[in-house]
């Protein structure tokens, strides 16, 4: 039977990984089988490359990654950056002032570097789960060039408050709710969907031959671009409504079930 999908775009947190940030064996096996059958596997994540590379290594694969919610496309083998959306540091200043005033944890990201002014105990545990090590900057220093993302982290209640406050402001940059505990501020044109479109055009792959799986609002753009967009059952309702299909949860390893049904042993 001819392969139906040439590219499989996979979100990481809440999709491939369980809530304990583990990669189930059955998911690894299914992803590897898709790769053996000739499909290109592309991780599409809100994480930066250094947080995404360990997941690709655990899968035993290499290739292209869409990182920072589509703000940077990188290559695993030589660590090259093939594309990135820079943001103007001056536009970030009001967001940084807000975080400092309210005591909200934030990190600043270039394509490869994660920079913080301080690290709380909760943030340190989060970075450990994501297998990333931020660099501590002196407070009040100049912002570096090549920033692609400001990410804020806190309790769901804190992040709900931040989202409410920031959505009332005049939007100079894009606000992306990338998880219950995270908000990302990025270039207005950056998204997983736009990065996936760019990558598909480079590889001459039509959208109908792309399958995408995700679980949160930052995945909607890639789910709607792909020929088949699959949402996890642990997704918010708005994400499920945007998808073509809903499967089980990340904790059940349901990416494996989806790949077996639609890629490895398709019955339709």
Automatic annotation (TrEMBL):
GO MF annotation list: magnesium ion binding; phosphatase activity
Pfam families in the record: Hydrolase_3
Annotated GO CC locations: cytosol
Gene3D superfamilies: 3.30.1240.10, HAD superfamily/HAD-like (3.40.50.1000)
Protein name (Swiss-Prot/TrEMBL): HAD family phosphatase
Taxonomic placement: Bacteria, Bacillati, Bacillota, Bacilli, Bacillales
């Amino acid at each position: 039977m001819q392969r139906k999908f040439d590219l499989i775009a996979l979100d990481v947190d809440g999709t491939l990984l369980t809530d304990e940030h583990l990669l189930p064996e059955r998911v690894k096996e299914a992803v590897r089988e898709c790769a053996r059958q000739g499909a290109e596997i592309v991780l599409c994540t809100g994480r930066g490359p250094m947080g995404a590379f360990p997941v690709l290594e655990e899968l035993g694969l290499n290739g292209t990654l869409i990182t920072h919610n589509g703000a940077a496309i990188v290559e695993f083998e030589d660590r090259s950056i093939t594309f990135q959306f820079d943001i103007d540091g001056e536009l970030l200043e009001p967001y940084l002032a807000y975080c400092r005033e309210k005591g909200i944890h934030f990190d600043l990201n270039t394509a490869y570097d994660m920079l913080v002014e301080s690290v709380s105990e909760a943030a340190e545990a989060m970075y450990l789960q994501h297998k990333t090590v931020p660099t501590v900057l002196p407070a009040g220093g100049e912002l570096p060039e090549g920033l692609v993302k400001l990410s804020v982290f806190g309790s769901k209640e804190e992040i709900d408050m931040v989202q409410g406050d920031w959505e009332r402001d005049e939007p100079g940059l894009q606000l992306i709710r990338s998880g219950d505990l995270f908000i990302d501020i990025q270039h207005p044109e950056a998204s997983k969907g736009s990065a996936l479109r760019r990558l598909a055009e480079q590889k001459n792959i039509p959208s109908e031959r792309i399958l995408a799986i995700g679980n949160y609002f930052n995945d909607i753009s890639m789910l709607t671009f792909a020929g088949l967009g699959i949402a996890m059952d642990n997704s918010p309702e708005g994400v499920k409504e945007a998808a073509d299909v809903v499967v089980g949860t990340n904790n059940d390893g349901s990416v494996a079930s989806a790949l077996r049904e639609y890629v490895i042993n398709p019955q339709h």
